[in-house]
Write a structure and sequence with these properties.
The chain is globular and about 50 Å long. The protein is an alpha+beta fold. The chain contains eight helices and 18 strands.
């Protein structure tokens, strides 16, 4: 399968954002270096220890999060507990499986063997190769996602992000006007069915019997007030449009917003941690050799009900 990769991650140092800050309680002065990517989203941050983040450090991180939408912290090597603690800075953790705050995204089973490619779990992971935003298929969409690399394959397995703020801005006036009041139903059943994976109701997180959540195609970011597309593979049907017209419009918007050369691509190294803003970003995983192990730890932050609650689940 051919993937139209975005640019390989490339950064330029934004020296104006290099500033002395206090890290932790030891009073050591560190310099935070923020390196902007060469596209409209993404920054690489050095000079911080996320497991010893002071209040002043957090203010700078949060500002960068709102501005760049994707923050890459190289070589942090956090424990799972430290990753969860950092995640709570952004809000309440969304539990995806039972009582687990963090889930492993891996092709290796608990018995030490690699999963078969046609297993139910690998079909779920395969779905992540389509452009999506996390938990749009839930009554409460996610605010942020935190992903760290533990074991990476020798090739492939990158993560790619697309800026939905820039995507909306790239639309012509007629298209912006056409979609400004449209809403779409998001369904995990539907998105998995499109890749040939039939899932039973109640089979796992997101596969429930409740009404498919209805979200606007264009959402205003609750903190920055910047409009952004809210699209992705989980869209089942746009209210008032046929399935065929829905597919055509979503494909058009995705092609514009995820245009080659405008996306951000990160090649993982063990210890890297990335956090992104689901309210204005799409992402996808890239394929890798399934004969090699890949282990990532994923923590998800729940959205604010005032802005991320589905229209048809307002009282849920």
């Amino acid at each position: 399968m051919h993937w139209p990769h975005g640019r390989q991650l490339s950064f330029r140092a934004n020296r104006s954002n290099c500033q002395p800050t206090i890290s932790g309680d030891d009073g050591i002065i560190l310099t935070i270096e923020i390196e902007e990517s060469n596209v409209s989203l993404g920054a690489k941050i050095r000079g911080l220890k996320l497991n010893a983040l002071s209040g002043k450090n957090w203010i700078e991180v949060h500002k960068a999060f709102l501005k760049y939408a994707v923050l890459i912290f190289p070589e942090q090597h956090l424990t799972q507990e430290e990753q969860e603690e950092f995640s709570t800075r952004f809000g309440k953790i969304e539990y995806l499986v039972d009582n687990l705050k963090t889930i492993p995204l891996t092709n290796k089973a608990s018995n030490g063997e690699l999963y078969e490619q046609d297993s139910e779990w690998m079909k779920l992971l395969k779905g992540n190769e389509g452009w999506h935003t996390d938990s749009s298929y839930m009554p409460l969409a996610a605010k942020a996602s935190i992903l760290s690399a533990r074991i990476v394959p020798t090739t492939g397995g990158e993560t790619e992000w697309a800026d939905m703020r820039a995507g909306y801005e790239a639309l012509d006036n007629a298209t912006q006007k056409k979609i400004e009041h449209l809403n779409a139903y998001h369904s995990y059943f539907h998105s998995q069915a499109k890749i040939g994976h039939t899932v039973k109701q109640g089979a796992g997180y997101g596969f429930n019997a409740s009404d498919a959540p209805l979200h606007p195609l264009v959402k205003t970011h609750p903190e920055t007030k910047i409009p952004a597309l809210f699209i992705g593979r989980h869209i089942h049907i746009i209210q008032g449009l046929s399935e065929k017209k829905t597919e055509k419009l979503v494909a058009k918007l995705t092609d514009i917003a995820c245009k080659k050369g405008t996306t951000l691509l990160h090649k993982w190294k063990p210890g890297d941690l990335v956090v992104w803003d689901n309210r204005c970003v799409l992402h996808r995983a890239l394929p890798y050799p399934l004969t090699e192990e890949r282990l990532m730890l994923h923590t998800r932050v729940a959205g604010d009900a005032r802005s991320e609650r589905a229209i048809n689940h307002a009282t849920a």
